[in-house]
Amino acid sequence: MAMKSSYTTPRDTIDDGRLPHEKYTPGHLPQGAPSSPMLANLVARQLDEELDALASSRGWTYTRYADDLAFSTDGKVSRGQAAQMMALATRTLVRQGFSSNKLKSRIIPPGARKLVLGVAVDTDHTKLSKKFRNNIETHLYALTSDRIGVKLHMHNRGFDSIVGMRKHIAGLIAFAHHIDKEYAAKLYSRFNSINWLS
């Protein structure tokens, strides 16, 4: 049995005429800086300690990556017990000043596919999901295709620039490299063959 959730921080964004990506929230740091993960971990430290203690006290394991939370157990638990764990975790989130994203919160029963951040975690070793593989392979197919190519694919996928698209896809391959180095090597080979000026 596993439970997956996500949280968001309350935001009162200032509307001072800036573009959406330029808006800021008083008392908050901008997103995307190299220090962001470390700062997020510092902010969530007390939350992590409470949720870990909650999970451990009931024989569960708590894990978090950024704002994605997961609770898992090898033990036999009912759906009701899993729902109770989710409710207790949500109360802890609220007490710590966060809120639960109900649309992303779900209980995953034994035997069902278990994905965390697009990675399958229900076998002896982690694997990239089929959806992730299809997405990146579609990018590479389009970018190396004589019919589509770089500029048309950029337009079709809504990227603002070739540089931005290239960095996005390079990031996907880097993520794949952490999970499956052999598969990522093939992706890098295809990525490096792309004519970005076409």
Automatic annotation (TrEMBL):
Documented EC number(s): 2.7.7.49
Source organism of this protein record: Pseudorhizobium flavum
Catalytic reaction equation(s): DNA(n) + a 2'-deoxyribonucleoside 5'-triphosphate = DNA(n+1) + diphosphate
Record's keyword terms, sorted: Magnesium, Metal-binding, Nucleotidyltransferase, RNA-directed DNA polymerase, Transferase
Residue stretches of biased makeup (Basic and acidic residues): 12-25
PROSITE patterns the record matches: RT_POL
Lineage, highest ranks first: Bacteria, Pseudomonadati, Pseudomonadota, Alphaproteobacteria, Hyphomicrobiales
Biased composition (Polar residues): 1-11
Official protein name in the record: RNA-directed DNA polymerase
All copies of domain Reverse transcriptase, residue ranges: 1-121
Region span, Disordered: 1-34
Any one Gene Ontology molecular-function term assigned to this protein's record: RNA binding
Family membership noted in the UniProt record: Belongs to the bacterial reverse transcriptase family.
Nucleotidyltransferase listed as a keyword: yes
